[in-house]
Structure formats: structure tokens, C-alpha cells
Design brief:
heterodimer, A: alpha+beta, Ubiquitin-like (UB roll), DNA polymerase, domain 1, three-stranded antiparallel β-sheet, two-stranded antiparallel sheet, B: alpha+beta, Aldehyde Oxidoreductase, domain 4, 3 domains, five-stranded mixed β-sheet
């Protein structure tokens, strides 16, 4: 089957029920999306399908119906997405393992809400677990990213 | 009687250091640098001036042997070296280096010597030095007990200074200009005429003579990097998904394995049936390993799926199958025979309590999983000549020994590579997965084998935090706390943990009392006794170890007594605190939280203090009792660490510790039924999520005489401060964790 990931076409030969996460990680070597729980409880595997955040550990590759964006496609160290730039400015990451998923959720959320309140942010981001406890900095970084996206 | 036993055991602990190493010899050897392990890999024209600085044609590498678990260890270690070496952080590479006894962690001795951290007497310091010597001889290269900064503070700055002065001497040799005329900056020696010789160009000469070891460390007022906000060197990679964690590593020809072992930890496997699994797509091999079975496949998910299709017949657990028996064992441990050492016994609590106690409170703290977000994995490749291991272990030296034993290869052919780690919290103080992956790789020589635990396997095989019980009593007089008597029972974490490494630790276990016996309160009758429960489920160090349960007992019990006395929880703690820099944390947090001001209806605030790993931390929690349950609004933290290395990372660590402490107190526990952990994934072990996260205000204090780590100390006060706040808001005293079994949270 054919997948478009970060603007590039990939041919894979896998079972239709294999979760997208493992196609990305083990078949294609795209390791930005992380394995955390396998049951859509932590959000570390979050990617975009047609711009919407989805949990790739629970999405069978056969059910993918659009273009996939992973953290690698959101922006790069040379060309940062506003969310990534804000994550760096606020030094959000501790272990950093959940942050790919956090940023993918945040980027998708900011597409739908350009000036979020704390409460909006809390609701949108509560499906992403961070064991290091970076939540206060995630909140601040999302506000910075929203501000920069508005003025862009 | 208790006193005599205590004395004997203390004497033994100190004495044994003297026997094992010889104190005189130990101190001598302590001062002599160990063999520099970097010299083995250094070519002509390169220099490894100290075990911490390596210079090659490619540039300068700073060796940061403490594992980065997400706490920023690599960056702070690099900054300590760079400060004196006169290099900027973006000019250097950072590498954890090879496991070597030279990277021993001396700050572990702070927790090993039988003295309170507030005790800076000659005897206490001498004992710590003695333990240092033993740690050096054992070559304990470990990351833990919040020691990275305390251990490296002198050592790494000194390493930077030695390298700098040696490079200056090299430049002097080459140019005949006196060392006193030379300056250094940005990775170069600067000549009097302003011209520069880079460190890289001087490496070959520097390697030809003995390093200059007579160095003076700079006064903190001269620091360029330390104490100021730094950009952690992993921040950009972690913000762009480009950092490679252990679980992300891949090598040519690598196979993907997973394992299922008896979920009753340590129980054996009777039999298994893999008939279905063997036929599944991508499955290459299924082999028995330890008390279970490994599946080797061409993809992690296929390995997981096949492992799920195997039928097992397991033996029962080597510990009680149900929780009641675990708790009963603790309940029955409060007796003279099981009394451990490190007791505190000021005044005469027994006589004071003879006429009755103002409180009779029993507290419980459950088993808790570490559950870092990156499930554990290891890659091992075995050939006839060498073995390579990639795993984010906190104890690489132990891993090297274990893999050498399993493969029969000489230590020089055992290569441990420590990649970035997606959290640990103590989880990676265990090397089981390395041993398992090595056994699998030995069956597939020449092929790199990546062993990944499923989240479920990780949960049921997470050696959890100790289960513990506390019993508090006391008396009050004239509105003051007069007597405080706290008993604590738990199994020994250290025995369980080191037992798995084949090491027997004699004598008492300091962690049974940690976070309670050494608290700097001057209470007239003050007794804190620790009781050692027999081993139950296998347990391990969990962020802040003994103090994680004990501070909850100690600070809840004290709060109950203060309330019974009709005193103010903040004022009475401040009055009782004799240790000045600790008292200042309480005063700071009182000011930050505007303690005493009116919070309005249905609201309450609680305070708790704990000195753990030598760092004093006071926290105030504010809650609102809403119709949906308790909402945690704000947390104020004041932490005393002597010197703050990086204010940004410091604040991150404190906030993280608070979230960790509160989240687990709210809703986490590991319980056993039929010998199996009932919580297998985050749906049953949630911790704190963003909508529950309070605003956290942090203040770092630098009044203390010693530099302390901050990875763990913010954890212990969080749970009792929350329980005390809930009491203030609702009148309900919660004495058992997790709290959500007794009250709802928003």
C-alpha cells in the first residue's frame, strides 16, 4: 500500500491491521512518533492525518485515508514550526519523550483555536501524558506559539 | 537496649569502610586519580587530559558519566567542566564515556554514612570521607540519589581547570611564553599579542607531559555559565523529534524481540505453547529465556502480537498473592526485633506518652510503578570477539560485569553504550532487560537484537516503590507540640535491589528512615523509629526513595499534632525548626503564598517540609473543594540547594517533582491480586494530567553550606502538603495514598 508521509510517497508491504505507529517506526525508520502505551492513553504517538491529530498506535494503517504528517514534517531544526520554536524558547522538554506527541497535539489544536485560554489548552492537551511534569511550561509555550502564529 | 544496638550497627558501618579499604590507604587512593579509561582509545595527536576532557582533531568532547534521564544531567555536567575549561557549550560534544571505576560517584556516601545531613561535625564528615573511599574502590558509577551535581560540583570543575592549565602549559612549551602571560577563552589559549592557539591544535603537545594538577577553582562570582540560564544541549533535538532515544536506535540487519515472563515476579514458568505464535507473520524464533519466552520477529508489533498468542502455565509468586497479607506483614513489623538503625530518640517520648496521646494516626503508602514514558528496551550484538550493548542504564558498571559473565568475554571486549533515555525515576537502576537481551543475542550471534518491552510487560515487571506504613503519636502542651513519636515499617529497598545484582548489603538500611529521622525540628520529646519488614514483592528505588513515603507520614502526623495543639501549621513548624537554612525555606514559602491571608470559602492551604538528600524543601498547596471534587489551584515551593547551577533546569526539576508527588498521591498504586500487578497500563495508573496541574511558583535558595541535587527533593513534601490542604479545606484527614480512594478530585 502507498502512504504519503511528510510530503513523500512510501510503498509498504504490511498487514492492514498493523498500527500506523509501527509502520512508521519499524518499517520506515520514522522515529519521531513514540511508542508509549499502545492503547491511546498517553499521546506520545500523535501524528496528523489530513492535519488532524490522531493516535497512530490505535490507527490501523489500512484505515489511513489521507496525508500523514509526523513531528519531522511539522518543522525541522533549520525551519522550525511556531510550536517547536516556542517549545525551545520555554525549554519545555525534560526527558522529552512525550514532546513529539505534545507538539503535534498543540499544532493541530492551534489550527482550530488561535487565541486559547488556559482552560481551552487544558482540555485540548489532557489526553497527552507527561511523566516528567512539564505541563506548566507546555501551557506557556502554547500561548507563545499562538501569539506568534497570530502575528505571522 | 535499642540504643546499644544502634551504636553497634553504626560503629560497624563506619568500621567496615576502614576494613574494606583501609581508611588511610583509602584516603590516599581517593586523592590519586584512577586509571584514565579514555587513554585506551586515544591516537597520536589526540589528548585525554583528564577522564572528563577528550580532545581530538574533530574537537573537544566533555565526558559526562552520569546518565541523562531527562533531568538535564549531561548539560549540567558539561557546564561544570566548560566553566573552568573556558569553552562555550556550543563548541563541545558531550559523551557519557565508557563505564569505568574512575567515574565513581562519591556523593552516594552522603546517604550511606550514618549522620544527618545537617550534621557537619568532624566525625560526620570523616565518616563520609571513609565511605567515599569504599565507593571509590567498589567503583560505583551510578546515577541516582540526586547526586549528579553534588558529586560533580568540585570534581568536574577541577577536571576543566586541570585541562585548561595543561593546555596553557602546552602553549607555553611551544612558544616559550610564560604561562602567567597566557589567557584562555572560547576553546583557545590567547597569546599576549591577541593571537590564538586552539585547544585542538595543542592536544598533541599536551599529551606528552603529565597534566598540571595544581589548580585553583574560580570563585562563583567569576562564573560565565553556571548559575545563569542555559540552553540545554538537547533542547532543540527534543523540540523537533530529532533526538534518538534508545528505543529509536536501529542497526543493519537488526531483529525485533519482545519477552513475556511470569507476571508473578520471580515466579517460574511451568510450560508454554507457541504453536500459533510460531506461524505468525514475521516471527523468526521463539525461545525460553529466564522465567518466560522471547519472541524474535522482523517488527516490534509482530513480536508483541505473537507473544500475546502464546499460552503459558506459570508458577505462583514467591511473595504473598494478595494485598491483605502485604499490609499485615507491615503491621506486624512494629516490634523491637525488627528495629533498624538510624533511630532518633530525643528527650523521653515514652514517659511523655504514658498519660495518653493527642493523636493516634496510621498511614499507608502503596507500591508505585516508575512507568517512565519510554518503555524499556535494549539492543545487544554478540560476536565471538566482542559484545555491544545499547541501553540507558543508570548503573553501566554493573551492566558491564553482568554481560561479561554471561558471554564469557573479557571486560575490554564488553562495550556498554548509554543512549538518551525517555525518563527513569529509578526504573533504569535495574539491568534485567540487558541480561535478557544478551541471552537472546547469544542465540543469534552476529545479529543485533533489539528487545522491547510492551507497556504491559513494563508495568507488571516494574520493580515498584516500597510499600510502607507509619504510626504517629504525640503530646501537646500550652498550644505547642511537646512530643512526636513516629514509627515507620517497610521492607528494605536496597536489599531487594542490590540482591538482584548479586550484592548483599549488611547492616541497617538508611532508606527505611529517610525523610523522617533527620528532619531538623527541635521537639522536646522526639522519637522516630524504623522497622524493617521482611521482603515482600521485589522493590526498587523510586524518585526520592524512602522519603517518598516517609515525608507523607512525618509531615501529616506533625500537622495533626499542630492542629490538635491549636497552633498554626506554618508558625509552629518555623518555631520548631532549629536549622537556619531549612527554616528559611518555610519563611520563604510563607511569604510566597501569603500564608495567613483569607482564601475564601471552601478553600484551604497546607504546608509540608522535608529535607531529603540534604536539600531542604518547603511546599504550600492551595486547594478548592468544588462540587466535582478537590481542585489543586496553586503550589508554592522554596528549595535550598546551596548553589543553583541553571535556574531554568532547576525550576523544571522542581515543577516536575511537584507534579510527580501530587499525581501519584492523587490516583496511583500498584496492587497485587493472585500475585500479579493489577495495573497494566496508564488507564489504571494515570498520574496527573494537564487539566489537574496547578500553577507552580518556585524559589531557589542558596543559604546552605553544601551543593545539593534537586531531582528528587521536591517530591516528598508534595503529598503531605496536599493532604494537609485537603484537611484545611474539608476537615477530612486522609491517611492513605492514593487519596482518590477517599475523596474525589476534579
Amino acid at each position: 500500500m502507498n502512504l504519503t508521509i511528510n510530503g513523500k510517497s512510501h510503498e509498504v508491504d504490511v498487514e492492514a491491521e498493523m498500527p500506523l505507529l509501527w509502520v512508521l517506526r519499524d518499517e520506515l525508520g520514522i522515529t519521531g512518533p513514540k511508542y508509549g502505551c499502545g492503547i491511546a492513553q498517553c499521546g506520545a504517538c500523535t501524528v496528523h492525518v489530513n492535519g488532524t491529530a490522531v493516535r497512530s498506535c490505535q490507527l490501523a494503517v489500512g484505515d489511513v485515508d489521507g496525508d500523514i504528517t509526523t513531528i519531522e514534517g511539522l518543522g525541522t531544526p533549520e525551519a522550525l514550526h511556531a510550536v517547536q520554536a516556542a517549545w525551545i524558547e520555554h525549554q519545555v522538554a525534560q526527558c522529552g519523550y512525550c514532546q513529539s506527541g505534545q507538539m503535534m497535539s498543540a499544532a493541530s489544536f492551534l489550527d482550530t483555536n488561535e487565541d486559547p485560554s488556559d482552560e481551552n489548552i487544558d482540555l485540548a492537551m489532557s489526553a497527552n501524558l507527561c511523566r516528567c511534569g512539564t505541563y506548566p511550561r507546555i501551557r506557556a509555550a502554547i500561548k507563545t506559539a499562538a501569539k506568534n502564529l497570530r502575528s505571522a | 537496649m535499642g540504643k546499644l544496638k544502634t551504636f553497634t550497627r553504626r560503629a560497624f558501618l563506619v568500621g567496615s569502610s576502614a576494613i574494606a579499604g583501609g581508611v588511610a590507604f583509602g584516603i590516599y587512593a581517593y586523592q590519586t586519580p584512577g586509571k584514565n579509561p579514555l587513554l585506551a582509545d586515544v591516537d597520536n595527536g589526540e589528548a585525554a587530559i583528564t577522564p572528563y576532557v577528550k580532545i581530538t582533531a574533530d574537537g573537544i568532547t566533555l565526558i559526562t558519566p552520569r546518565t541523562d534521564l531527562g533531568q538535564g544531567a549531561y548539560s549540567v555536567q558539561a557546564a561544570l567542566i566548560a566553566e573552568e575549561l573556558d569553552v562555550e557549550l556550543d563548541q563541545v560534544m558531550v559523551d557519557p564515556g565508557p563505564p569505568s571505576p574512575v567515574y565513581y560517584n562519591t556523593a552516594f556516601s552522603e546517604e550511606g554514612a550514618p549522620f544527618r545531613p545537617t550534621d557537619e561535625s568532624f566525625i560526620a564528615e570523616a565518616a563520609r570521607t571513609g565511605v567515599d573511599s569504599v565507593i571509590k574502590f567498589l567503583g560505583v558509577q551510578a546515577t541516582g540519589v540526586s547526586t549528579t551535581v553534588p558529586d560533580g560540583y568540585e570534581k568536574l570543575r577541577r577536571a576543566g581547570a586541570v585541562a585548561r592549565e595543561t593546555l596553557k602549559a602546552a602553549a607555553s612549551k611551544e612558544t616559550d611564553i610564560a604561562v602567567s602571560e597566557l589567557k584562555t577563552a572560547n576553546g583557545a589559549v590567547i597569546m599576549p599579542d591577541g593571537s590564538k592557539r586552539t585547544y585542538v591544535s595543542l592536544a598533541a603537545i599536551a599529551a606528552t607531559f603529565e597534566p598540571v594538577t595544581e589548580v585553583t577553582l574560580r570563585d562563583p562570582t567569576q562564573w560565565r555559565l553556571l548559575g545563569k540560564p542555559m540552553l540545554r544541549h538537547d533542547t532543540i533535538a527534543k523540540s523537533t523529534g530529532t533526538l534518538t532515544y534508545g528505543i529509536d536506535l536501529a542497526f543493519e540487519g537488526m531483529v525485533h524481540a519482545t519477552i513475556k515472563t511470569n507476571p508473578r515476579q520471580g515466579g517460574k514458568m511451568k510450560s508454554f505453547n507457541a504453536a500459533t505464535a510460531e506461524k505468525m507473520r514475521g516471527v523468526q524464533k521463539i525461545i525460553p529465556v529466564d522465567n518466560g519466552v522471547a519472541v524474535i520477529a522482523d517488527n516490534t508489533w509482530r513480536a508483541f502480537k505473537a507473544a500475546d498468542a502464546i499460552e503459558f502455565d506459570w508458577e505462583s509468586a514467591p511473595y504473598p498473592a494478595e494485598m491483605d497479607e502485604h499490609w499485615n506483614t507491615l503491621e506486624n513489623s512494629f516490634n523491637e526485633k525488627q528495629l533498624d538503625a538510624r533511630t532518633r530518640d530525643d528527650g523521653d517520648a515514652i514517659t511523655a506518652l504514658a498519660e495518653g496521646s493527642a493523636i493516634n494516626a496510621d498511614y499507608r503508602a502503596p507500591y508505585l510503578a516508575h512507568a517512565p514514558l519510554e518503555p524499556i528496551s535494549a539492543i545487544v550484538k554478540v560476536t565471538d570477539e566482542r559484545v555491544d550493548v545499547w541501553n540507558g542504564t543508570q548503573i553501566p558498571g554493573f551492566a558491564k560485569d553482568a554481560v561479561g559473565k554471561l558471554t564469557g568475554l573479557e571486560p575490554e571486549n564488553v562495550h556498554i553504550h548509554v543512549p538518551y533515555v525517555g525518563g527513569s525515576f529509578g526504573h533504569r537502576l535495574e539491568n534485567d532487560i540487558i541480561k535478557q537481551a544478551t541471552k537472546i543475542a547469544m542465540e543469534m550471534k552476529g545479529t543485533p537484537v533489539k528487545l522491547t518491552y510492551s507497556r504491559e510487560e513494563d508495568f507488571v515487571h516494574d520493580f515498584p516503590r516500597q510499600i510502607a506504613m507509619g504510626k504517629a503519636r504525640g503530646t501537646i502542651k500550652d498550644g505547642r507540640v511537646e512530643t512526636y513519636d513516629l514509627g515507620i515499617a517497610m521492607p528494605s529497598v536496597i536489599s531487594s535491589q542490590m540482591g538482584r545484582e548479586g550484592i548483599s548489603i549488611p547492616g541497617p538500611n538508611p532508606q527505611i528512615m529517610a525523610g523522617a529521622w533527620e528532619q531538623p525540628y527541635a521537639i522536646p520529646n522526639y522519637r522516630v523509629f524504623g522497622y524493617r519488614a521482611p521482603e515482600l514483592a521485589p522493590i526498587s528505588s523510586w524518585r526520592s526513595v524512602g522519603a517518598s513515603s516517609n515525608a507523607f507520614f512525618h509531615e501529616s502526623g506533625l500537622d495533626e499534632l499542630i492542629h490538635a495543639a491549636g497552633a498554626d501549621p506554618m508558625e509552629e513548624r518555623i518555631r520548631l525548626m532549629w536549622h537556619e537554612s531549612s527554616r528559611k525555606t518555610l519563611e520563604a514559602v510563607a511569604e510566597m503564598s501569603n500564608w495567613g491571608s483569607d482564601l475564601g470559602p471552601n478553600r484551604g492551604r497546607g504546608v509540608a517540609f522535608c529535607m531529603s538528600f540534604g536539600a531542604a524543601v518547603a511546599e504550600v498547596v492551595e486547594v478548592t473543594n468544588t462540587e466535582q471534587g478537590i481542585k489543586i489551584d496553586k503550589v508554592f515551593v522554596a528549595a535550598e540547594v546551596g548553589k543553583i547551577m541553571d535556574p531554568i533546569n532547576f525550576e523544571n526539576q522542581v515543577m516536575g517533582g511537584v507534579v510527580w508527588g501530587l499525581g501519584h498521591a492523587m490516583n496511583c498504586e500498584i496492587t497485587y491480586s493472585d500475585g500479579v500487578a493489577e495495573q497494566s497500563n496508564y488507564h489504571a495508573y494515570e498520574g496527573m494530567r494537564m487539566y489537574q496541574c496547578p500553577i507552580i511558583e518556585v524559589r531557589g535558595l542558596e543559604n546552605g553550606t553544601k551543593v545539593r541535587g534537586i531531582g528528587e527533593p521536591p517530591v516528598p513534601p508534595a503529598a503531605p502538603a496536599l493532604a494537609n490542604a485537603i484537611f484545611a479545606a474539608t476537615g477530612k484527614r486522609i491517611r492513605k495514598m492514593p487519596f482518590n480512594k477517599h475523596i474525589n478530585f476534579v
